[in-house]
Each structure stands twice: as structure tokens, then as C-alpha cells.
Amino acid sequence: MECRLGCGACCIAPSISSAIPGMEDGKPAGVRCIQLDENNLCKLFGLPERPKVCLEFASVDWVCGKSNEEALITLTEIEEATA
């Protein structure tokens, strides 16, 4: 599955413990990553500054669902279950 451009759920719902440019202490769950632009596209995509966890995330049907809202709900539930 390819990511839905402009979804951004994986950059909002989960916590990220590693440093992100502009968020040196990482990102708490439910907080929008500072590197998402106004179209929910990653400003670090393809750059070496992009956190390893972001590079390793792969979209899959059961996580991403059929809409951006569904992806956000699923990722939030996963985050809460593993926190």
C-alpha cells in the first residue's frame, strides 16, 4: 500500500522519542509534528534528518484504513494500547 498523500496520521497520533529538527525532545502522542507542512506532507521526507522511526514506518491497509480519519483513530488506539 502507498501512503495517502496529505494524511499525516502517522505524524500526529504516535509519540516519537527520538529528536526531530525543531522538536529536539521528540514528539508526544497526539501532537502534530512540527515538520508537517500545511498540506500534511513531511518537510523532511528524503532527507537524512528524518528520524529512523519515520523511515521505517510502512503504510498497511489495516492501519491506514480507508480514510485519513480512520488512520488517525487506529494509530491513536495503537499508541494508547502500547503506552
TrEMBL record:
PANTHER family documented for this protein: UPF0153 PROTEIN YEIW
Protein name: UPF0153 protein
Native source species: Litoribrevibacter albus
